[in-house]
């Protein structure tokens, strides 16, 4: 049963990372408001495919809650109605949560796929909850971690609504991303508790390696927080200059950007030394190679975004690499802490 549970936890972790990927594609394409309402999209469970479906027409039935774009504003049907020849405002109410009233089929379906990825992850988590609850070979802490991760997913779903209703307020997006990383951390901890037998036969403890790994985790948390500040600056530039003017996204960046960029050098040096220690003392951490690989992709895409003005795909790879790097570091640290306990 534990093998089956580990597989389900792995699928849950992958599903959360897919949400990260889908969300980064939404940001990369400027599709955050592709669906201006939540949880539906323009009042539909399956979004419209053309502007014509969102325009008011005479002699047409509109279901209660359906949204139309009329006079450059969103209107919501108060009840199921069949229109006549004239638009009657008493049948509609203006959508007041924000003033965004545009339709772009590509943006709409990009955001819709992002939401579908969350729905799929939700079903995976339900299966995981069922397995954890009825697992006969219970391991202390696993159920609690899983329940907390599920509560985190519910919070993230609600926060997704707040992101849309607030018209993509940057600090709310930041909280949304950090919440996702915490869920990954909870799931990785649950996986570790189940699969942490016989660690001493695979890995060796090294004090310097351990504390450098811990330092690297702290550095990555700093980098993530700095990165969210840079992303907020980019969001403000996009709102001021427009989504298509990519050359202005990092125009005259603030101190946070330069510190974020320069601090990457320190992260690379520490990661390289960790790799060297792992090789020299044969510590057994295969995860270190992934740390260097994800760090390379994160640094390289950061260089491209600054010097080549955000080539297509770089934002998505940059964000996903950072999230994967966080996961690999924290799981490696779980292993090292357990070995530290054995060693002491």
UniProtKB/TrEMBL annotation:
Chief localization: membrane
Signal peptide annotation: none
Transmembrane portions of the chain: 12-30, 112-130, 142-159, 171-188, 209-226, 258-278, 290-310, 316-337
The keyword Membrane is assigned to this record: yes
Keyword line: Cell membrane, Disulfide bond, Heme biosynthesis, Iron, Membrane, Metal-binding, Oxidoreductase, Transmembrane, Transmembrane helix
Topological type in the membrane: Multi-pass membrane protein
Alphabetized InterPro entries for the sequence: COX15/CtaA_fam, COX15/CtaA_HemeA_synthase
Superkingdom to which the source organism belongs: Bacteria
Pathway assignment: Porphyrin-containing compound metabolism
Record's protein name: Cytochrome c oxidase assembly protein subunit 15
Provenance organism: Wenyingzhuangia heitensis
């Amino acid at each position: 049963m534990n093998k089956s549970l580990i597989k389900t936890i792995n699928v849950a972790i992958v599903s959360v990372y897919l949400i990260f990927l889908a969300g980064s594609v939404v940001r990369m394409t400027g599709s955050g408001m592709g669906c201006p309402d939540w949880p539906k999209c323009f009042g539909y469970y399956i979004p419209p495919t053309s502007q014509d479906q969102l325009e008011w027409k005479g002699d047409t039935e509109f279901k209660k809650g359906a949204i139309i774009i009329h006079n450059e504003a969103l209107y919501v049907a108060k009840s199921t109605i069949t229109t006549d020849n004239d638009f009657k405002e008493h049948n509609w109410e203006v959508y007041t949560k924000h003033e965004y009233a545009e339709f772009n089929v590509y943006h709409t379906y990009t955001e819709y796929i992002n939401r579908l990825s969350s729905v799929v992850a939700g079903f995976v988590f339900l299966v995981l909850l069922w397995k954890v609850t009825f697992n006969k070979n219970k391991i202390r802490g696993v159920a609690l971690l899983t329940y907390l991760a599920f509560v985190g997913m519910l919070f993230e779903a609600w926060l997704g609504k707040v992101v849309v209703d607030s018209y993509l307020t940057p600090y709310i997006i930041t909280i949304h991303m950090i919440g996702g990383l915490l869920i990954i951390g909870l799931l990785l901890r649950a996986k570790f508790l189940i699969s942490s037998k016989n660690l001493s036969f695979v890995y060796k403890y090294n004090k310097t390696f351990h504390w450098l790994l811990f330092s690297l985790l702290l550095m990555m948390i700093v980098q993530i927080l700095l990165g969210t500040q840079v992303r907020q600056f980019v969001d403000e530039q996009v709102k001021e200059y427009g989504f298509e003017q990519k050359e202005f996204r990092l125009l005259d960046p603030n101190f946070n950007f330069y510190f974020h960029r320069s601090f990457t050098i320190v992260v690379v040096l520490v990661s390289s030394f960790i790799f060297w220690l792992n090789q020299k003392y044969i510590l057994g951490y295969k995860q270190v190679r992934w740390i260097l690989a994800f760090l390379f992709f994160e640094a390289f895409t950061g260089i491209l975004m600054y010097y080549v003005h955000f080539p297509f795909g770089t934002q998505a790879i940059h964000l996903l690499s950072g999230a994967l790097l966080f996961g690999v570091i924290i799981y490696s640290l779980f292993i090292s802490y357990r070995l530290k306990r054995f060693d002491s």
